[in-house]
Amino acid sequence: MKRHQVLLLTTLILLLAGCSLVQPEKKTPSEPEADIDCEWTIMRGVAELVSFEENTAAMDFFPGEIRFHTEMDDRDWAPGDEFKVLLETSDHPECGEPRVRELSPLGPDA
Asked: I need a surface site. Which of 3, 42, 43, 60 has the fewest CB within 10 A?
């Protein structure tokens, strides 16, 4: 009877050890869509300066409340200043961030 128990335990140990050696098949991440159609739309609106650091401005574009970043000269711009903007946007985030076509200040200091 002891011999049968030893054989049974040995068989169970071998089965369990064998199962732990089999690795699940790793799935490769899906390839990004290469056929994305990056159509850009030009929008005219007003942008408000949110922050300005080292010649880079963060702005909120209206209509649409789109946050974008652009390089600007180091004039005395302050948060809250407004600008007329032509902005290119895409429906697909994979195409990149919005692009500024034209930017000119609004207000009496312009």
From this structure: 3
